[in-house]
Design brief:
The chain contains 13 helices and 13 strands. With about 325 residues, it is an alpha/beta fold.
């Protein structure tokens, strides 16, 4: 296989700020959720954030991109299919992926110079909770043309970002990628991405998942909301009808890996959380690296927990390569 993991998802450059709860309340922003905004709203919010708090960090982002970067830094051979514009932000994003060892076709595609590369305002409160307001820009037009099927067919796993559900053309691309993967014996993994995605796009999310996938990532809230159940046990029972392996993150309580014949529970690493942005993405990246290298589920989940704990202890959604390697060598 040419690639261990082939990911598809939004291409967003994160602009990260440390903010107060009072600021979110004054702006009418719902804490802990991701919301989509237009460019005018994004420009206005960015100006207010810069004036009030100052920019803390700019970094490449996007849920699946963070996961693919993490897997790459651990040593997986990875590919990321996405869409950026021919602007400074798009060039920054492409170089950032390549520097992390992720292969793309971005430098071979003539980008739409009239568009804008997507941006995400990440607002982190003192309790380490992250709240995101996202202007998708040109990534909202991510479509089948950007899928690069030969690269997908040459991969062990396809990893799909749940945030693609918000765009009709992107959702159609994700469904097509899933179909091609299945036809070519490429295993399929997907993440719910955010509680808002299963709350407001539940039917579309079900369409994107299809009848069955190999691995499904979600947190407790997402699993219960998607299945319209009252507790996690009932949610698990329903979700095992559509996936072989259910990976559930439980925050400070650790994580679970559930299949039809076993339940693996892994306790969380003790850490002082500073910024929870990217914790789920990092968890998925570490877990995907482990299983793509033939590790057992429990070992993969333990690495994922350790990596997630490490990323919430720093500001930003990613870690340096040497930190990944240090974690890896502890296993």
């Amino acid at each position: 296989m040419k690639y261990d993991i082939y990911g598809i998802g939004n291409a967003l450059v994160d602009k990260e700020f440390e903010v107060s709860d009072e600021f979110l309340q004054a702006q009418g922003i719902k804490k802990g959720m991701m919301a989509l905004i237009d460019e005018e709203q994004q420009i206005k919010l960015l100006a207010q954030l810069k004036e009030t708090f100052g920019l803390k960090k700019r970094a490449g982002g996007g849920s699946a991109a963070n996961t693919i970067v993490a897997a790459s830094q651990f040593g997986s051979k990875t590919f990321y299919a996405c869409k950026v514009a021919d602007d400074e932000t798009g060039n920054f994003y492409m170089k950032d992926l390549h520097a992390a060892g992720v292969k793309t076709r971005l430098n071979e595609i003539k980008c739409n110079s009239n568009g804008s590369t997507g941006k995400c305002m990440v607002m982190v409160t003192p309790d380490a909770e992250r709240t995101m307001h996202t202007f998708l820009g040109i990534t909202a037009d991510f479509c089948e043309d950007e899928l690069h099927f030969n690269d997908l067919k040459a991969s062990k796993y396809l990893y799909i970002e749940g945030y693609l559900v918000t765009s009709e053309v992107s959702r159609a691309a994700a469904i097509r990628a899933r179909q091609v993967a299945k036809e070519n014996n490429v295993k399929i993994a997907m993440t719910f991405s955010d509680p808002a995605m299963v709350t407001y796009f539940k039917d579309n999310m079900a369409e994107m998942i299809g009848e069955h996938i190999d691995i499904l990532f979600g947190n407790k809230e997402e699993c219960i909301t998607f299945t319209a159940t009252n507790n996690l046990d009932d949610a698990i029972s329903k979700l095992l009808n559509i996936t072989d392996k259910l990976v559930i993150t439980l925050g400070s309580k650790g994580a679970m890996v559930v299949t039809a014949d076993k339940v693996i529970e892994v306790t969380a690493n003790k850490i002082n959380a500073i910024d929870t942005n990217g914790a789920g993405d990092m968890f998925a990246g570490a877990f995907m690296h482990g299983i793509s290298q033939g590790w057992e589920d429990e070992k993969s989940a333990k690495l994922a927990n350790a990596a997630a704990a490490e990323v919430v202890s720093v500001f930003g959604a990613r870690l340096d390569r040497d930190v990944h390697q240090k974690l890896l060598h502890s296993f």
